[in-house]
Amino acid sequence: MKNTYLILCLAFLQLLQSQNSKLSPEFYQDKRKDFRMKMPENSVAVLFSAPIRNRANDVDYVFHQDPNFFYLTGWHQPHSVLIIYKDPQFDENGSFNEKIYILERDEYKELWNGKRFSIEAVRQLGFHRVTTRNQFKADVANLSKYDKVLMFGFNNDIRDLEGDPYDLFDLKAAFKEAINFPTQFNGDLYAVYQHILKADEEHIESVREEVKAHVELDSMLLDDEIVKQFLAYPNTDFYSEVKTKTAFALRNYNFDLEVLPKLMKDMREIKSDEEIDLLKKAVAISVIGQIEVMKAMHPEMTEREIQGIHEFVYRKYGAADEGYPSIVGAGENSCVLHYIENEKKEIDNQLVLMDLGAEFYGFTADVTRTIPANGIYSLEQRALYEIVYEAQEKSIQAALVGTSFRSLFELSYAIVADGLLRLGIIKDVSEARSYYPHGLSHHIGLDVHDPGNYVDLAPNMVVTIEPGIYIPEGSPCDSKWWNIGIRIEDDILITEKGPLNLSAGAPRKWEEIELMMKQESVLDDFILPEIETLIQ
Ligand code: GLY
Ligand code: MN
Ligand code: MN
């Protein structure tokens, strides 16, 4: 029994740590209104909250709401569902076009774990139809009357909680039953079928290329007769027959896995003013973290200590979390793009790559600085740093409305390749890809890699610009370049008047970084006792 109490306490402590929304109810109402307008005729959208993920035994990870669900609701509890209808629905209480299902109150559990949020609290977020989750099953029983049920694919790591018949697992099971979701559903095959259906005579070659790309990733798709025929078709008549067969194969599905992700990309890639305000705060907090670390850094520090200073600053400013696991890598670790172990103890005279972002009311920054542990860039470190800086600076300047993501990347790649050629590290432009193996830019928002269409830049997008050069040990170049990894990453608001660098407050030029590193830090006097002195 005691154990059960402990489990409940832990689970709900974690719930309470999750942050409420800071945006107004109108913000979310407007988003849902916009969403509804974009929905196809006679459709309904069903969005689930995120699952609670188990860390080990009876301890769960801190709950983090699903960003799409949060974007449309502002609601931060697990085991919740949102339904949005394209058209007004009617019941004995009148008309409605959306409904949210939440955890029911439970006096006994609340005695132990604190208050669960009430239906009233959800109403304050602008919802008129709020019910507890045990209603969900009955409500979704008639989804077949809609032409399309818009949804995301199902995650497969949700636990069925013992003793709770309406947890997320059960809600999803009820939903699957309501839409006749096949037990053996092949999401890749479904995606390929959608491509085939969209192909008209004009685009057939591009669709064939897309289908081929799927097949390259998963050759089992070729076991499917329709896919095989589509790729082998000899003429357009035959192609139209394949299309008919595809439509027939999908005849029993009224669920749709394509429209909802696309709508969320279209909406979330353009930020409203309120979102930009919160992003600016998240970025400002992350900038202060970078500055404080620049001042405090010394060669005896460990990667974990550096991580701790950034994250302490985040908490000091009220950020509940990091938007992604903090990356602090010195020397060889700076060459691992998403290094998160942060366990190296000797950073000495190496470059330290610090890629971190505070999450403030759900919105996350993504800022990287690469600085010398001893405060002075060596000649080799500086030569490479200057190339990355130039690639970043020119890409930021080119981040104008209408510029394509692709052309920005190409600009940065040309500068990096040119610099590496000049230093004799590569002999041909194509070799630069192995030292600059990632993209240049992504949206940020509720996700660190926020959804978007990634075509052209538009006003009110917030994107990163983050070129890098990474030369791991053993690379085919002079060993003096080995173990140097450099990324410089800033968060840029795209405006009609040009790019606005939201993270410009953190020094970026090597000279400015060296100057900042000479400043005193309050942490210089933060001297803790040797641990051995306290061990009995
Ligand atoms: N922090 C992950 C990234 O820069 O994309
Ligand atoms: Mn990034
Ligand atoms: Mn980053």
Short description:
By secondary structure, the protein is an alpha+beta fold.
Q: Considering DSSP H and I runs of 4 or more, what fraction of the residues is helical?
A: 25-40%
Broad shape? globular
Indicate the mean pLDDT: 92
List bound small molecules: glycine, manganese (II) ion
Overall structural domain count:
3
Assess the beta-strand content as a share of residues: 15-25%
CATH class category label of the largest domain: Alpha Beta
Q: What structural class results from the helix and strand content?
A: alpha+beta
The first-to-last residue Cα distance is 35 Å
What descriptors fit this protein?
536 residues, alpha+beta, Creatine Amidinohydrolase, Chain A, domain 1, three-stranded antiparallel β-sheet, 38% helix, binds glycine, binds manganese (II) ion
Spell out the blueprint of helices and strands:
Elements: H1 2-17, H2 25-38, E1 43-48, E2 54-56, E3 59-60, H3 67-73, E4 81-91, E5 94-102, H4 107-113, H5 119-123, E6 130-132, H6 136-139, E7 148-150, H7 168-178, H8 187-198, H9 204-217, H10 225-232, H11 236-249, E8 255-256, H12 259-268, H13 273-296, H14 303-316, E9 321-322, E10 327-330, E11 351-356, E12 358-360, E13 363-364, E14 367-372, H15 379-397, H16 405-422, E15 462-465, E16 468-471, E17 484-487, E18 490-495, E19 498-501, H17 510-518
Parallel strand pairs: 1-7, 5-6, 7-8
Antiparallel strand pairs: 1-4, 2-3, 4-5, 9-12, 10-11, 11-14, 12-13, 15-18, 16-17, 18-19
Helix pairs in contact: 8-9, 13-14, 13-17, 15-16
This protein binds glycine and manganese (II) ion (2 copies).
Glycine (GLY) is lined by residues 324, 355, 366, 448, 466, 489.
